[in-house]
Amino acid sequence: SPAMARPRPATSTAAEAELMLLERQALAEEEAAKAKQELLTRFLQHKLSREEQSSAWGLHKVRTLWRSVLRQAKDHELRRDIEILSQTFSQVMDCKDGVIEALVRDLEEAEEQHSRALSSHLHLTDQLLQLQRCRLGYLEEGFNAQVGALRAEFEAERCGISRGEGERGSSGTHGLSWDGAEPLPAPPGPSQLLCQGGN
């Protein structure tokens, strides 16, 4: 019964109180440690989030800068290629201009030579025509002279034959006779005389 219960010693009560105090302190320290851990965890998570954002922004910035550098490098490379192509094109055009000028000079020289050759040919042709005219004139003069000589000779022979026939007729002898009914033989033509002159 409570009346019969003996009171606890003071030392036991003090120990229990101290133990409870220690337990409360340990619990408080544990709660404080948990709170500190949670706070540290939130801080680290926040810092990690900021770092991730900063890293993403930095990566975006780096990519942007890298693209800019690549564009600049590509632009420089393209400009250099364009300059090289422009120089090459200028050299090719200069070469083609030189070839065209040379061809124009050759064409002008060829036209000049053709003109000189044509002029010389026409001059020689005129000379040959003049020589041919002179030769034909000489041949015509010779032909006319031969025709005149043949006619004179023929007339002389005809007159001689006529006289002979008259003498024979008066003496009663018969021989060659020509009564004038038959035509005189034609004198040789110019072609025959030209052939004779050529022979």
From TrEMBL:
Per the record, the coiled-coil ranges are 93-120
Q: What is this protein called?
A: Dynein regulatory complex subunit 2
Provide the gene name from the record.
Ccdc65_0
Question: Which cellular compartments is it found in?
Answer: Cytoplasm, Cytoskeleton, Flagellum axoneme; Cytoplasm, Cytoskeleton, Flagellum basal body
BP GO annotations: axonemal dynein complex assembly; cilium-dependent cell motility; regulation of cilium movement
Positions of the Dynein regulatory complex protein 1/2 N-terminal domain: 25-123
Transmembrane parts of this sequence: none
Function according to Swiss-Prot or TrEMBL: Component of the nexin-dynein regulatory complex (N-DRC), a key regulator of ciliary/flagellar motility which maintains the alignment and integrity of the distal axoneme and regulates microtubule sliding in motile axonemes. Plays a critical role in the assembly of N-DRC and also stabilizes the assembly of multiple inner dynein arms and radial spokes. Coassembles with DRC1 to form a central scaffold needed for assembly of the N-DRC and its attachment to the outer doublet microtubules.
